[in-house]
Input
Amino acid sequence: MHAKIPGIVIQFKTLSSSTIRAYAYVGRASGRSVCFADGSNKKQASKNLSRVLGEPSTLAEISRRKSEEAQVSTKSKEDINWLVARFRASNRFNDLAPKSKKDKLRYLEDFSREFGTWPVKIFEKYETGRDIAEWRSRRADKPRTADLMVMAVSGMFSWARKERLTKANPTKDLNQFYKVDRSGIVWTDNEVDRLLAACSTKELAWAIKLALETALRQGDLIKLPWSAIQGDAIVRKTGKKGSTVVLPAKHLRSLLDEIEKRSPVILTSRKGQPWTSDGLRSSFNKARKRAGIEGKDWHDFRGTAVTRLVIAGLSDAEICTWTGWSLKDVEQMKLIYVSAETVANHMLDRINSERE
Output
């Protein structure tokens, strides 16, 4: 069936389960597929795909996509507006976590406002790196934001090169404005106690405690379901890297027993609804202000948790399993987050305690 539909390209992929998945694309095997079907082999997957392609809704979508392709080819001069539109329609972009997608879209729209009508090909010239640097410099007052702007553009061009849409790599030699070094910025026991005392709700306190015990990113933490608890372990695929983390749940038993089950996810707000990232961040910032704590943010719970794991004597391999990082990531993150002075002081305290 699909062979009789002009302009349809089929691409096969072997899934982790060994299932063969057949994707149907309009025009070329890139961007978002029109539909897909699975099978035990290519022949079966292709046969199943033929049935899906014959459905009226699929045929209507193919017609719509062909119309879009025609508009792009006739109206576009393959400028930056065109490239951003192609990237937004790609699996690479649509597979991002919602917050990452929202942030990158904001930066790419800003990039389009500045360079939208510039031909993509012109960015193959080395000199255009200066133009991007000037664009970034408008946010020099916020170095982290400035770097994220460039990272979004860099990711788009990286995707475009793999899709053979351009050879351009205009951000290649741009140095970062913002250098992360939060080693030593960990939450002390006293600060944690003050913060918990300043929490306006028990739900916020539960979220803080779980963050300190699991080392999960906020995005993964607020989506953590009760079903992730498997016996004495928590097994969960992270949202950012898609890696699987495994951490012991036995030491969390008292905390988990304290948390009321109101939803498929573990953490909820006072209203019984899953936390949103903005809602949790806002409640946390208010509690931190009431506690009179400055210079520490939510992300430092992660660094504090990793520091505790190092102090507890876990190996780098064990920390990899706990956090979902690679060995290289663990080495790098220990340099960023784990203060040698903090670890040494804890060791000294333990020695003194044993002597007493």
Residues 224 and 271 are 18 Å apart (CA to CA). The longest helix spans residues 56-75.
